[in-house]
Amino acid sequence: MNPWARMAGVAVVVLALDQVTKVLVDSSIARGDSEELVLGIRLVNVRNTGVAFSSFQGAGALIGVVVAIALVALLWYFARHQAKPLIWLPTGMLLGGALGNVIDRIREGGVIDFIKVVDFWPAFNVADAAITVGVVLLLWVMERRGAAPRPA
């Protein structure tokens, strides 16, 4: 399968999971409320107008510019390195996660966060998790030396 198609498929899955989970939480938990799930994990319904871990609250226009530049750079890198094994996976995760949060910013004025693991850690969502894992995987794929050839 074409790396662009794989990347797009991952992005669509991440975007769909992100948006569906946000709609479910938003329709079942009032904004500002929370429900205990298990072992200190709570479902919450909060809005984040900042970026990762609630930093830069209220910097909407700046965040939009930075996200746009980052996505252009990501897609440029992907276009130049699409033959690199597994590069499609983190690229799709990052693209899908970023688009999920951009949709929230346009529709809600902030990102819908709903997973709260411990009291001192900010709430997050599926898009945030995909972006975090995507960054780690992208660094691993970028730094990976040539993989051993697969047996025929």
H/I helix tally: 4
Total tally of structural domains: 1
Broad structural category:
alpha+beta
Roughly how many Å apart are the termini?
Answer: 17 Å
Short characterization:
The protein has 152 residues and is an alpha+beta fold. Helix content is 57%, strand content 12%. It has one domain (3-143).
Provide an overview of this structure:
The protein has helices at 3-28, 60-81, 88-108, 126-143, and strands at 34-38, 41-48, 111-116. Helix 3 runs antiparallel to helix 4 (126-143). The protein has one domain. Strand 1 (34-38) and strand 2 (41-48) form a beta hairpin. It is α+β, with helices and mostly antiparallel strands and 152 residues long.
List the helices and strands and how they pair.
Elements: H1 3-28, E1 34-38, E2 41-48, H2 60-81, H3 88-108, E3 111-116, H4 126-143
Antiparallel strand pairs: 1-2, 2-3
Helix pairs in contact: 1-3, 2-3, 3-4
